[in-house]
Fold this protein.
Amino acid sequence: MIRINEKTIEKFFFLSAFFSALVTCSIFAFLFVLGLPLFSGGRFFSIITQPWAPHLGHFGIYPMIAGTLAVSLLTMVVAFPLSLGCAILISVVDRGKMSWLLRKTVEMMTGVPTVIYGFVGIFLLVPLVREIFEAGSGMCVLSAVLMLTLLVSPTMILFFCDSFERVPRSYGDAVLAVGGTEIQKFLYVTLPHSWTGIVIGFTLSLGRALGDTLVALMIAGNAVQVPGSLFDSARTLTSHIALVFAADYNSMEFKAIFACGIFLYLFTTILVCAVRLVGGRRKMAG
Amino acid sequence: MKTKLSVVICIAAMALSLCAAAFAGDLDAFKSEKGEIKIAGGTAHIPVMKEAAARIMGLNPHIQISIAGGGSGVGIKQVGEGLVDIGNSGRKAKDEEVSKYGLKMFKWAIDGVGIVVNPANSVRSLTQEQLMAVFAGKISNWKELGGEDRGINLYTRDESSGTRAVFWKKALSKGDIASSANFVVSNGAMKGAISQDPYGIGYVSVGHIDESVAPVAFNGVAPSLENVKDGKYTISRGLYSNTKGEPAGLVKKFIDYLFTDEGQELVARKGFVPVK
Protein backbone atom coordinates (compact mmCIF):
# COMPACT_ATOMS: atom_id res chain seq x y z
CA MET A 1 0.00 0.00 0.00
CA ILE A 2 2.69 2.42 1.08
CA ARG A 3 4.70 1.47 -1.98
CA ILE A 4 1.94 2.40 -4.38
CA ASN A 5 1.55 5.69 -2.61
CA GLU A 6 5.21 6.38 -2.88
CA LYS A 7 5.14 5.60 -6.56
CA THR A 8 2.20 7.90 -7.13
CA ILE A 9 3.83 10.72 -5.27
CA GLU A 10 7.05 10.16 -7.14
CA LYS A 11 5.17 10.38 -10.42
CA PHE A 12 3.37 13.48 -9.28
CA PHE A 13 6.62 15.24 -8.45
CA PHE A 14 8.18 14.07 -11.66
CA LEU A 15 5.29 15.53 -13.63
CA SER A 16 5.53 18.83 -11.73
CA ALA A 17 9.23 19.04 -12.49
CA PHE A 18 8.62 18.05 -16.09
CA PHE A 19 6.02 20.75 -16.58
CA SER A 20 8.15 23.50 -15.06
CA ALA A 21 10.97 22.48 -17.36
CA LEU A 22 8.57 22.37 -20.29
CA VAL A 23 7.29 25.88 -19.57
CA THR A 24 10.85 27.20 -19.42
CA CYS A 25 11.71 25.56 -22.73
CA SER A 26 8.52 26.66 -24.44
CA ILE A 27 9.07 30.27 -23.41
CA PHE A 28 12.44 30.13 -25.11
CA ALA A 29 10.89 28.50 -28.17
CA PHE A 30 8.20 31.18 -28.23
CA LEU A 31 10.78 33.97 -28.06
CA PHE A 32 12.84 32.30 -30.73
CA VAL A 33 9.94 31.81 -33.14
CA LEU A 34 8.68 35.37 -32.72
CA GLY A 35 12.20 36.70 -33.00
CA LEU A 36 12.87 34.63 -36.11
CA PRO A 37 12.29 37.47 -38.62
CA LEU A 38 15.25 39.18 -36.96
CA PHE A 39 17.58 36.26 -37.33
CA SER A 40 16.83 35.61 -40.95
CA GLY A 41 18.24 37.85 -43.66
CA GLY A 42 21.46 38.63 -41.84
CA ARG A 43 19.84 41.24 -39.67
CA PHE A 44 20.94 39.50 -36.52
CA PHE A 45 24.40 41.03 -36.45
CA SER A 46 23.07 44.50 -37.11
CA ILE A 47 20.85 44.02 -34.07
CA ILE A 48 23.90 43.41 -31.94
CA THR A 49 26.19 45.99 -33.44
CA GLN A 50 24.01 48.95 -34.41
CA PRO A 51 23.01 51.78 -32.11
CA TRP A 52 19.32 52.22 -31.22
CA ALA A 53 17.87 55.00 -33.38
CA PRO A 54 14.45 53.98 -34.69
CA HIS A 55 13.95 57.16 -36.74
CA LEU A 56 17.11 56.31 -38.68
CA GLY A 57 16.17 52.66 -39.06
CA HIS A 58 18.73 51.38 -36.57
CA PHE A 59 17.40 48.87 -34.08
CA GLY A 60 20.57 47.68 -32.37
CA ILE A 61 20.38 46.65 -28.77
CA TYR A 62 24.03 46.45 -27.82
CA PRO A 63 23.88 49.55 -25.56
CA MET A 64 21.17 47.75 -23.61
CA ILE A 65 23.19 44.53 -23.46
CA ALA A 66 26.11 46.50 -22.06
CA GLY A 67 23.80 48.30 -19.64
CA THR A 68 22.31 45.06 -18.37
CA LEU A 69 25.68 43.40 -17.86
CA ALA A 70 27.17 46.47 -16.19
CA VAL A 71 24.29 46.91 -13.79
CA SER A 72 23.76 43.28 -12.84
CA LEU A 73 27.39 42.22 -12.56
CA LEU A 74 28.35 45.31 -10.56
CA THR A 75 25.38 44.65 -8.31
CA MET A 76 26.73 41.19 -7.59
CA VAL A 77 30.22 42.60 -6.98
CA VAL A 78 28.77 44.83 -4.27
CA ALA A 79 26.07 42.55 -2.97
CA PHE A 80 27.99 39.29 -2.64
CA PRO A 81 30.65 40.36 -0.14
CA LEU A 82 28.08 42.43 1.70
CA SER A 83 25.69 39.52 2.04
CA LEU A 84 28.43 37.10 2.99
CA GLY A 85 29.64 39.45 5.71
CA CYS A 86 26.13 40.04 6.93
CA ALA A 87 25.37 36.31 7.03
CA ILE A 88 28.60 35.60 8.93
CA LEU A 89 27.68 38.25 11.47
CA ILE A 90 24.19 36.85 11.90
CA SER A 91 24.94 33.13 12.12
CA VAL A 92 28.58 32.78 13.07
CA VAL A 93 29.97 35.75 14.97
CA ASP A 94 27.02 36.96 16.98
CA ARG A 95 24.32 34.59 18.18
CA GLY A 96 22.52 36.93 20.57
CA LYS A 97 19.81 39.60 20.40
CA MET A 98 21.58 41.64 17.76
CA SER A 99 21.70 38.63 15.44
CA TRP A 100 17.99 37.98 16.00
CA LEU A 101 17.14 41.62 15.27
CA LEU A 102 19.28 41.66 12.11
CA ARG A 103 17.76 38.44 10.90
CA LYS A 104 14.20 39.67 11.38
CA THR A 105 15.05 42.89 9.56
CA VAL A 106 16.51 40.98 6.64
CA GLU A 107 13.50 38.67 6.53
CA MET A 108 11.24 41.69 6.40
CA MET A 109 13.31 43.22 3.61
CA THR A 110 12.71 40.23 1.34
CA GLY A 111 9.05 41.22 1.23
CA VAL A 112 9.50 44.85 0.19
CA PRO A 113 8.12 45.37 -3.34
CA THR A 114 10.57 46.62 -5.95
CA VAL A 115 8.55 49.72 -6.68
CA ILE A 116 9.18 50.91 -3.11
CA TYR A 117 12.92 50.61 -3.69
CA GLY A 118 12.44 52.55 -6.91
CA PHE A 119 10.68 55.39 -5.13
CA VAL A 120 13.18 55.52 -2.32
CA GLY A 121 15.88 55.55 -4.98
CA ILE A 122 14.38 58.51 -6.83
CA PHE A 123 13.72 60.66 -3.83
CA LEU A 124 16.65 59.84 -1.56
CA LEU A 125 19.48 58.15 -3.41
CA VAL A 126 19.43 59.97 -6.76
CA PRO A 127 19.72 63.52 -5.32
CA LEU A 128 22.42 62.27 -2.95
CA VAL A 129 24.49 60.72 -5.75
CA ARG A 130 24.03 63.87 -7.86
CA GLU A 131 25.19 66.22 -5.14
CA ILE A 132 28.04 64.09 -3.75
CA PHE A 133 29.70 63.25 -7.05
CA GLU A 134 28.54 66.30 -9.05
CA ALA A 135 28.47 64.17 -12.17
CA GLY A 136 25.32 64.00 -14.22
CA SER A 137 21.77 63.76 -12.99
CA GLY A 138 22.25 61.11 -10.34
CA MET A 139 20.16 58.75 -12.45
CA CYS A 140 23.02 56.44 -13.24
CA VAL A 141 24.55 52.99 -13.06
CA LEU A 142 25.79 53.62 -9.51
CA SER A 143 22.36 54.50 -8.14
CA ALA A 144 20.80 51.48 -9.79
CA VAL A 145 23.56 49.20 -8.51
CA LEU A 146 23.18 50.44 -4.94
CA MET A 147 19.43 50.06 -4.98
CA LEU A 148 19.57 46.63 -6.62
CA THR A 149 22.08 45.56 -3.99
CA LEU A 150 19.50 46.38 -1.39
CA LEU A 151 16.96 44.39 -3.37
CA VAL A 152 18.96 41.20 -3.95
CA SER A 153 20.94 41.02 -0.71
CA PRO A 154 18.23 39.84 1.70
CA THR A 155 17.57 36.62 -0.23
CA MET A 156 21.27 35.94 -0.44
CA ILE A 157 21.83 36.65 3.26
CA LEU A 158 19.05 34.29 4.32
CA PHE A 159 20.37 31.56 2.03
CA PHE A 160 23.87 31.94 3.42
CA CYS A 161 22.65 32.00 7.02
CA ASP A 162 20.64 28.84 6.54
CA SER A 163 23.53 26.97 5.01
CA PHE A 164 25.93 28.07 7.75
CA GLU A 165 23.48 26.92 10.36
CA ARG A 166 22.94 23.55 8.71
CA VAL A 167 26.56 22.53 9.28
CA PRO A 168 26.42 20.02 12.19
CA ARG A 169 27.57 21.54 15.44
CA SER A 170 29.74 18.55 16.28
CA TYR A 171 32.02 19.25 13.27
CA GLY A 172 32.83 22.68 14.60
CA ASP A 173 33.25 21.38 18.11
CA ALA A 174 35.76 18.85 16.80
CA VAL A 175 37.88 21.63 15.31
CA LEU A 176 37.85 23.53 18.58
CA ALA A 177 38.70 20.33 20.47
CA VAL A 178 41.89 19.78 18.50
CA GLY A 179 42.93 23.34 19.26
CA GLY A 180 41.65 25.17 16.19
CA THR A 181 40.52 28.79 16.40
CA GLU A 182 37.07 30.11 15.59
CA ILE A 183 38.40 31.51 12.34
CA GLN A 184 39.90 28.16 11.35
CA LYS A 185 36.63 26.50 12.21
CA PHE A 186 34.76 28.86 9.91
CA LEU A 187 37.26 28.72 7.05
CA TYR A 188 37.91 24.96 7.02
CA VAL A 189 34.63 23.49 8.19
CA THR A 190 31.65 25.82 7.96
CA LEU A 191 32.48 27.45 4.62
CA PRO A 192 33.24 24.26 2.61
CA HIS A 193 30.17 22.56 4.02
CA SER A 194 27.85 25.40 3.10
CA TRP A 195 29.29 25.84 -0.37
CA THR A 196 26.19 24.54 -2.18
CA GLY A 197 23.95 26.97 -0.34
CA ILE A 198 26.25 29.85 -1.20
CA VAL A 199 26.25 28.94 -4.88
CA ILE A 200 22.46 28.67 -4.97
CA GLY A 201 21.99 31.96 -3.12
CA PHE A 202 24.38 33.66 -5.51
CA THR A 203 22.66 32.22 -8.59
CA LEU A 204 19.19 33.26 -7.44
CA SER A 205 20.31 36.80 -6.69
CA LEU A 206 22.15 37.09 -9.97
CA GLY A 207 18.98 36.07 -11.77
CA ARG A 208 17.05 38.67 -9.89
CA ALA A 209 19.60 41.40 -10.61
CA LEU A 210 19.52 40.52 -14.30
CA GLY A 211 15.77 40.35 -14.53
CA ASP A 212 14.62 43.20 -12.35
CA THR A 213 12.91 45.90 -14.35
CA LEU A 214 11.50 48.55 -12.10
CA VAL A 215 14.55 49.65 -10.17
CA ALA A 216 16.64 50.15 -13.30
CA LEU A 217 13.72 51.71 -15.17
CA MET A 218 13.11 54.22 -12.42
CA ILE A 219 16.63 55.22 -11.44
CA ALA A 220 19.21 54.12 -14.01
CA GLY A 221 18.19 56.97 -16.35
CA ASN A 222 17.44 54.80 -19.42
CA ALA A 223 19.74 56.64 -21.81
CA VAL A 224 20.51 54.60 -24.91
CA GLN A 225 24.28 54.48 -24.60
CA VAL A 226 27.01 52.16 -23.46
CA PRO A 227 27.75 53.40 -19.95
CA GLY A 228 31.35 54.60 -19.77
CA SER A 229 31.42 55.27 -16.06
CA LEU A 230 29.47 54.63 -12.89
CA PHE A 231 27.85 58.03 -13.28
CA ASP A 232 26.51 57.50 -16.79
CA SER A 233 22.86 56.95 -17.41
CA ALA A 234 22.17 53.45 -18.75
CA ARG A 235 19.31 51.33 -20.01
CA THR A 236 18.92 47.65 -19.24
CA LEU A 237 17.29 45.12 -21.56
CA THR A 238 14.34 44.82 -19.21
CA SER A 239 13.78 48.60 -19.08
CA HIS A 240 14.12 48.68 -22.82
CA ILE A 241 11.36 46.12 -23.22
CA ALA A 242 9.14 48.09 -20.86
CA LEU A 243 9.83 51.36 -22.70
CA VAL A 244 9.42 50.06 -26.24
CA PHE A 245 6.47 47.81 -25.48
CA ALA A 246 4.07 50.61 -26.40
CA ALA A 247 5.26 50.61 -30.01
CA ASP A 248 3.08 49.33 -32.83
CA TYR A 249 2.93 45.50 -32.93
CA ASN A 250 4.09 45.34 -36.52
CA SER A 251 6.89 47.83 -36.18
CA MET A 252 10.53 46.87 -36.23
CA GLU A 253 10.89 48.38 -32.74
CA PHE A 254 8.46 45.85 -31.40
CA LYS A 255 10.19 42.97 -33.14
CA ALA A 256 13.54 44.08 -31.78
CA ILE A 257 12.37 43.63 -28.21
CA PHE A 258 12.09 39.92 -28.85
CA ALA A 259 15.81 39.99 -29.45
CA CYS A 260 16.10 41.63 -26.03
CA GLY A 261 14.09 38.79 -24.53
CA ILE A 262 16.29 36.19 -26.18
CA PHE A 263 19.44 37.88 -24.93
CA LEU A 264 18.09 38.14 -21.42
CA TYR A 265 17.23 34.47 -21.49
CA LEU A 266 20.62 33.55 -22.87
CA PHE A 267 22.50 35.63 -20.31
CA THR A 268 20.57 34.15 -17.45
CA THR A 269 21.18 30.63 -18.73
CA ILE A 270 24.87 31.17 -19.42
CA LEU A 271 25.57 32.90 -16.14
CA VAL A 272 23.66 30.37 -14.10
CA CYS A 273 25.50 27.52 -15.84
CA ALA A 274 28.82 29.25 -15.29
CA VAL A 275 28.15 29.74 -11.61
CA ARG A 276 27.03 26.11 -11.28
CA LEU A 277 30.17 24.91 -13.06
CA VAL A 278 32.50 26.95 -10.92
CA GLY A 279 30.55 26.07 -7.81
CA GLY A 280 30.52 22.37 -8.67
CA ARG A 281 34.26 22.25 -9.27
CA ARG A 282 34.99 23.89 -5.96
CA LYS A 283 32.80 21.38 -4.21
CA MET A 284 34.75 18.46 -5.64
CA ALA A 285 38.04 20.02 -4.65
CA GLY A 286 36.81 20.71 -1.13
CA MET B 1 1.59 46.00 -19.41
CA LYS B 2 3.13 49.14 -18.09
CA THR B 3 1.41 48.75 -14.80
CA LYS B 4 3.79 51.03 -12.97
CA LEU B 5 2.44 53.98 -14.78
CA SER B 6 -1.06 52.77 -15.19
CA VAL B 7 -2.64 55.23 -12.87
CA VAL B 8 -5.82 53.22 -12.74
CA ILE B 9 -7.96 55.37 -10.59
CA CYS B 10 -10.98 54.56 -8.57
CA ILE B 11 -12.34 57.88 -7.66
CA ALA B 12 -15.39 57.28 -5.52
CA ALA B 13 -14.10 59.33 -2.59
CA MET B 14 -12.84 62.16 -4.74
CA ALA B 15 -16.08 62.22 -6.63
CA LEU B 16 -18.06 62.93 -3.49
CA SER B 17 -16.31 66.23 -2.95
CA LEU B 18 -17.19 67.25 -6.48
CA CYS B 19 -20.86 66.37 -6.30
CA ALA B 20 -21.76 69.99 -5.92
CA ALA B 21 -20.33 70.79 -9.33
CA ALA B 22 -22.20 67.93 -10.90
CA PHE B 23 -25.70 69.31 -10.96
CA ALA B 24 -25.35 71.26 -14.17
CA GLY B 25 -27.32 70.31 -17.25
CA ASP B 26 -24.56 68.88 -19.44
CA LEU B 27 -24.27 65.86 -17.19
CA ASP B 28 -27.98 65.00 -17.43
CA ALA B 29 -27.27 62.59 -20.26
CA PHE B 30 -25.57 60.24 -17.79
CA LYS B 31 -28.44 60.08 -15.29
CA SER B 32 -30.11 56.92 -16.48
CA GLU B 33 -26.93 55.22 -17.70
CA LYS B 34 -25.15 52.24 -16.25
CA GLY B 35 -21.92 50.53 -17.19
CA GLU B 36 -18.19 50.86 -17.51
CA ILE B 37 -15.79 52.92 -19.59
CA LYS B 38 -12.15 51.94 -19.86
CA ILE B 39 -9.72 54.64 -20.93
CA ALA B 40 -5.99 54.36 -21.56
CA GLY B 41 -3.19 56.10 -23.40
CA GLY B 42 -1.81 59.64 -23.55
CA THR B 43 -0.63 60.91 -20.20
CA ALA B 44 -1.28 64.57 -21.07
CA HIS B 45 -5.02 63.82 -21.13
CA ILE B 46 -5.17 62.37 -17.64
CA PRO B 47 -6.06 65.53 -15.63
CA VAL B 48 -9.11 66.21 -17.82
CA MET B 49 -10.13 62.55 -17.93
CA LYS B 50 -9.89 62.24 -14.15
CA GLU B 51 -12.00 65.31 -13.52
CA ALA B 52 -14.65 64.35 -16.08
CA ALA B 53 -14.79 60.83 -14.64
CA ALA B 54 -15.11 62.19 -11.11
CA ARG B 55 -18.04 64.39 -12.12
CA ILE B 56 -19.85 61.63 -13.97
CA MET B 57 -19.30 59.00 -11.30
CA GLY B 58 -20.25 61.50 -8.61
CA LEU B 59 -23.58 62.03 -10.32
CA ASN B 60 -24.24 58.40 -11.12
CA PRO B 61 -22.49 55.75 -9.05
CA HIS B 62 -23.65 53.03 -11.47
CA ILE B 63 -21.05 54.19 -13.96
CA GLN B 64 -17.46 52.99 -13.54
CA ILE B 65 -14.71 54.80 -15.36
CA SER B 66 -11.12 53.62 -15.18
CA ILE B 67 -8.23 55.68 -16.49
CA ALA B 68 -4.76 54.36 -17.28
CA GLY B 69 -1.66 55.97 -18.76
CA GLY B 70 0.80 54.29 -21.07
CA GLY B 71 1.41 56.94 -23.70
CA SER B 72 -0.14 57.70 -27.07
CA GLY B 73 1.17 54.53 -28.68
CA VAL B 74 -0.45 52.39 -26.00
CA GLY B 75 -3.71 54.33 -26.29
CA ILE B 76 -4.01 53.72 -30.02
CA LYS B 77 -2.91 50.11 -29.79
CA GLN B 78 -5.21 49.19 -26.91
CA VAL B 79 -8.31 50.80 -28.37
CA GLY B 80 -7.53 49.22 -31.71
CA GLU B 81 -7.19 45.78 -30.14
CA GLY B 82 -10.44 46.30 -28.24
CA LEU B 83 -8.80 46.28 -24.80
CA VAL B 84 -10.17 49.68 -23.85
CA ASP B 85 -13.15 51.76 -24.99
CA ILE B 86 -11.31 55.03 -25.46
CA GLY B 87 -7.65 55.31 -26.40
CA ASN B 88 -6.15 58.75 -25.92
CA SER B 89 -3.34 60.10 -28.03
CA GLY B 90 -1.41 63.34 -28.09
CA ARG B 91 -0.88 63.00 -31.82
CA LYS B 92 -3.05 62.22 -34.80
CA ALA B 93 -3.27 58.48 -35.34
CA LYS B 94 -1.18 57.49 -38.36
CA ASP B 95 -3.06 56.68 -41.56
CA GLU B 96 -2.18 53.01 -41.36
CA GLU B 97 -3.36 52.86 -37.75
CA VAL B 98 -6.67 54.47 -38.73
CA SER B 99 -7.26 52.11 -41.62
CA LYS B 100 -6.08 48.99 -39.79
CA TYR B 101 -8.23 49.50 -36.71
CA GLY B 102 -11.03 51.65 -38.13
CA LEU B 103 -10.30 54.40 -35.64
CA LYS B 104 -12.48 57.46 -35.09
CA MET B 105 -10.57 60.49 -33.81
CA PHE B 106 -12.04 63.22 -31.62
CA LYS B 107 -9.89 66.28 -31.05
CA TRP B 108 -11.19 68.03 -27.97
CA ALA B 109 -8.30 70.31 -27.02
CA ILE B 110 -5.13 71.92 -28.23
CA ASP B 111 -2.11 71.52 -26.04
CA GLY B 112 1.31 73.12 -26.07
CA VAL B 113 4.47 71.21 -25.25
CA GLY B 114 6.49 73.42 -22.94
CA ILE B 115 10.20 73.26 -22.24
CA VAL B 116 10.78 73.06 -18.50
CA VAL B 117 13.68 73.43 -16.10
CA ASN B 118 13.99 73.28 -12.34
CA PRO B 119 12.71 76.47 -10.60
CA ALA B 120 16.20 76.91 -9.10
CA ASN B 121 17.63 77.30 -12.60
CA SER B 122 18.02 80.89 -13.80
CA VAL B 123 17.81 80.09 -17.51
CA ARG B 124 14.30 81.04 -18.63
CA SER B 125 14.58 81.57 -22.37
CA LEU B 126 16.11 79.65 -25.26
CA THR B 127 16.15 80.11 -29.00
CA GLN B 128 15.38 77.14 -31.20
CA GLU B 129 19.04 77.02 -32.19
CA GLN B 130 20.15 76.84 -28.55
CA LEU B 131 17.52 74.24 -27.74
CA MET B 132 18.60 72.04 -30.63
CA ALA B 133 22.24 72.33 -29.58
CA VAL B 134 21.32 71.46 -26.00
CA PHE B 135 19.36 68.35 -26.98
CA ALA B 136 21.99 67.27 -29.48
CA GLY B 137 24.56 67.46 -26.71
CA LYS B 138 26.58 70.26 -28.36
CA ILE B 139 25.90 72.60 -25.47
CA SER B 140 26.46 70.57 -22.35
CA ASN B 141 26.99 73.12 -19.60
CA TRP B 142 24.47 75.60 -18.17
CA LYS B 143 27.29 78.18 -18.08
CA GLU B 144 27.09 78.51 -21.86
CA LEU B 145 23.45 79.55 -21.51
CA GLY B 146 24.05 81.98 -18.64
CA GLY B 147 23.41 79.55 -15.81
CA GLU B 148 25.52 77.77 -13.22
CA ASP B 149 28.72 75.93 -14.08
CA ARG B 150 27.14 72.47 -14.03
CA GLY B 151 26.47 69.88 -16.69
CA ILE B 152 23.08 69.85 -18.40
CA ASN B 153 21.02 66.73 -17.72
CA LEU B 154 18.71 65.96 -20.60
CA TYR B 155 15.37 64.27 -20.07
CA THR B 156 13.28 62.88 -22.88
CA ARG B 157 10.39 60.47 -23.44
CA ASP B 158 10.25 57.08 -25.14
CA GLU B 159 9.47 56.80 -28.86
CA SER B 160 5.80 55.97 -28.36
CA SER B 161 5.11 59.28 -26.63
CA GLY B 162 2.96 61.80 -28.50
CA THR B 163 4.53 64.61 -26.50
CA ARG B 164 7.94 63.53 -27.72
CA ALA B 165 6.75 63.26 -31.31
CA VAL B 166 5.49 66.86 -31.28
CA PHE B 167 8.50 68.23 -29.44
CA TRP B 168 10.91 66.46 -31.76
CA LYS B 169 9.15 67.66 -34.89
CA LYS B 170 8.31 71.24 -33.95
CA ALA B 171 10.95 72.25 -31.41
CA LEU B 172 13.95 70.26 -32.61
CA SER B 173 13.01 70.18 -36.33
CA LYS B 174 13.62 66.41 -36.15
CA GLY B 175 17.16 67.05 -34.95
CA ASP B 176 19.26 64.67 -32.89
CA ILE B 177 18.63 63.88 -29.26
CA ALA B 178 21.92 62.98 -27.56
CA SER B 179 22.26 59.37 -26.50
CA SER B 180 23.10 60.48 -22.98
CA ALA B 181 19.53 61.73 -22.49
CA ASN B 182 17.60 60.13 -19.65
CA PHE B 183 14.24 58.58 -20.48
CA VAL B 184 11.13 58.98 -18.38
CA VAL B 185 7.81 57.28 -18.99
CA SER B 186 5.07 59.92 -18.64
CA ASN B 187 4.34 63.63 -18.40
CA GLY B 188 3.98 63.18 -14.66
CA ALA B 189 7.32 61.40 -14.39
CA MET B 190 8.95 64.17 -16.45
CA LYS B 191 7.62 66.81 -14.09
CA GLY B 192 8.84 64.73 -11.15
CA ALA B 193 12.30 64.30 -12.63
CA ILE B 194 12.75 67.99 -13.49
CA SER B 195 11.43 69.18 -10.13
CA GLN B 196 14.01 66.89 -8.49
CA ASP B 197 16.98 67.78 -10.68
CA PRO B 198 18.27 71.39 -10.48
CA TYR B 199 20.33 70.86 -13.63
CA GLY B 200 17.78 69.06 -15.75
CA ILE B 201 15.86 70.17 -18.83
CA GLY B 202 12.88 68.41 -20.35
CA TYR B 203 9.48 69.01 -21.91
CA VAL B 204 5.92 68.45 -20.73
CA SER B 205 2.39 69.11 -21.84
CA VAL B 206 1.58 72.75 -20.95
CA GLY B 207 -1.37 71.51 -18.88
CA HIS B 208 1.12 69.82 -16.55
CA ILE B 209 3.22 72.89 -15.82
CA ASP B 210 2.84 74.08 -12.23
CA GLU B 211 5.03 75.71 -9.59
CA SER B 212 7.24 72.61 -9.23
CA VAL B 213 8.86 73.29 -12.62
CA ALA B 214 9.76 76.50 -14.46
CA PRO B 215 8.63 77.07 -18.05
CA VAL B 216 11.26 78.22 -20.55
CA ALA B 217 10.34 80.64 -23.33
CA PHE B 218 10.93 79.25 -26.83
CA ASN B 219 12.18 81.87 -29.32
CA GLY B 220 11.05 84.48 -26.79
CA VAL B 221 7.49 83.16 -26.50
CA ALA B 222 6.41 81.74 -23.15
CA PRO B 223 4.44 78.46 -23.22
CA SER B 224 1.30 80.03 -21.78
CA LEU B 225 -2.28 79.19 -22.55
CA GLU B 226 -2.82 82.49 -24.36
CA ASN B 227 0.23 82.04 -26.55
CA VAL B 228 -0.80 78.52 -27.49
CA LYS B 229 -4.34 79.73 -28.22
CA ASP B 230 -3.39 82.53 -30.60
CA GLY B 231 -0.76 80.39 -32.26
CA LYS B 232 2.27 82.42 -31.16
CA TYR B 233 3.69 79.43 -29.33
CA THR B 234 4.43 76.97 -32.09
CA ILE B 235 5.13 73.70 -30.24
CA SER B 236 1.52 72.57 -30.03
CA ARG B 237 -0.66 69.63 -30.95
CA GLY B 238 -4.21 68.38 -30.65
CA LEU B 239 -5.33 66.11 -27.85
CA TYR B 240 -7.33 63.23 -29.26
CA SER B 241 -9.64 60.59 -27.89
CA ASN B 242 -9.96 57.65 -30.27
CA THR B 243 -12.57 54.95 -30.53
CA LYS B 244 -12.72 51.83 -32.65
CA GLY B 245 -15.51 52.59 -35.06
CA GLU B 246 -18.34 55.04 -34.35
CA PRO B 247 -18.74 55.37 -30.55
CA ALA B 248 -22.07 54.34 -29.08
CA GLY B 249 -23.94 54.44 -25.80
CA LEU B 250 -22.01 55.49 -22.74
CA VAL B 251 -18.73 55.98 -24.60
CA LYS B 252 -20.42 58.35 -27.06
CA LYS B 253 -21.93 60.29 -24.17
CA PHE B 254 -18.54 60.58 -22.51
CA ILE B 255 -16.94 61.97 -25.64
CA ASP B 256 -19.89 64.27 -26.28
CA TYR B 257 -19.48 65.57 -22.75
CA LEU B 258 -15.93 66.70 -23.54
CA PHE B 259 -17.38 68.91 -26.28
CA THR B 260 -20.16 70.47 -24.17
CA ASP B 261 -19.70 73.97 -22.67
CA GLU B 262 -18.98 72.37 -19.34
CA GLY B 263 -16.49 69.90 -20.79
CA GLN B 264 -14.67 72.61 -22.71
CA GLU B 265 -14.62 74.81 -19.63
CA LEU B 266 -12.98 71.90 -17.80
CA VAL B 267 -10.44 71.58 -20.61
CA ALA B 268 -9.55 75.26 -20.20
CA ARG B 269 -9.31 75.00 -16.44
CA LYS B 270 -6.80 72.15 -16.71
CA GLY B 271 -4.50 74.32 -18.79
CA PHE B 272 -5.43 73.33 -22.34
CA VAL B 273 -6.96 75.32 -25.19
CA PRO B 274 -10.60 74.38 -25.88
CA VAL B 275 -11.47 73.59 -29.48
CA LYS B 276 -14.84 75.36 -29.43
